[in-house]
Amino acid sequence: MEDISKHILRKIKEDKVRPYPKRYFLFRRSVIWTVFGLSILLGSIASAIALFQLRYAEWDLYQHLSHSLLEFALLVIPFFWLVFLLGFTGFAYYYFRRTEQGYRYRTTWVILGSIVLSIIGGGLLHATGLPERLEIVFQDNVPFYREWQERKQKVWMSPGQGLLAGRIIKVIPEQELQIEDLHGNTWVININDTIWRGRLRPANDLKIKILGKQKDESHFVADEIRPWQGRRGRDRMWHSRCKGENERPRVKQK
To answer: Which residues contact 221 (CB under 8 A, 6 or more apart)?
Structure first.
């Protein structure tokens, strides 16, 4: 045993091995916990946006569509943000395992705990209205995300199946609207017995979704009008109001 100790000491001297200072371990521990916390925070943001999209997904559209159940699920379930949530959960797991006590916990519990923390954080963020603002920011600044979202919304361009979407370009007296749809075509919308969702009012440049019946190639009867996005219909491109907003036709609220 003594010979082994001498050999180790000699080896240390020969290789000029120096112990790490205490501050190194403190810094390493701080970095690990910081990255773990950031992973949970980013997972919470992904969870919050996923909850926002699930809350305002048009689950009742399935009866209007000829799509299969799988296609409809791809339309309404926020897979993009769920993948992000799982990715940040992986980061959280990786760095938690490198904490001093991380090795003591089973993999399943670490992963489930990270997901639960992210969902709880997402619920808290969702209550602040932050996800709706972040959704607009992503659509403004991330081209592929905007294209992906717009592709999902193209399902509303099915007037023959009672679905239409576009931007109001004129509020016409006698209970009508003129809109420009997502393809640039102009429609006259009858809103005589229409239910307006989300506290909407007819206004120029407001982007809306319409459920109803197609009369011909340019006329549509609206049974229900919904916000294009979120609680108040705010949209990254169309959110201004017309100056003559006081000239509003009678609408039903529900």
So the answer is: 189, 190, 212, 213, 214, 215
Say how many domains are in the chain.
2
Tell whether the model's pLDDT for residue 37 goes beyond 90.
yes
Helical ranges in 129-215 per DSSP H: 130-141, 143-153
With bands split at pLDDT 50, 70 and 90, how would you rate the model's confidence at 20? low
DSSP string, 192-228: TTPEEPTT----TT-EEEEEEEE-SSSEEEEEEEEES
Q: Give the chain's length.
A: 254
Give the HSE-up count for residue 123: Cα atoms under 13 Å, Cβ half-sphere: 5
Copy the structure tokens of residue 127: 């209550």
pLDDT in tens, 38-83: 999 999 999 999 998 888 777 777 666 666 677 677 777 888 889 9
pLDDT of residue 185: 92
Pairing label, strands 219-227, 207-214: antiparallel
pTM of the model: 0.65
CATH number at residue 195: 2.40.50.140
The answer to whether residues 141 and 26 belong to one domain is yes
pLDDT of 197: 83
From the list 167, 146, 152, the residue with the least C-alpha distance to 210 is: 167
Whole-Å CA distances, 38 to 26, 81, 92, 113, 212: 18, 16, 8, 15, 46
Q: What is the DSSP letter of 158?
A: B
What domain range includes position 143? 22-151
| Helix (H) or strand (E) run with residue 81 in it | helix 79-96
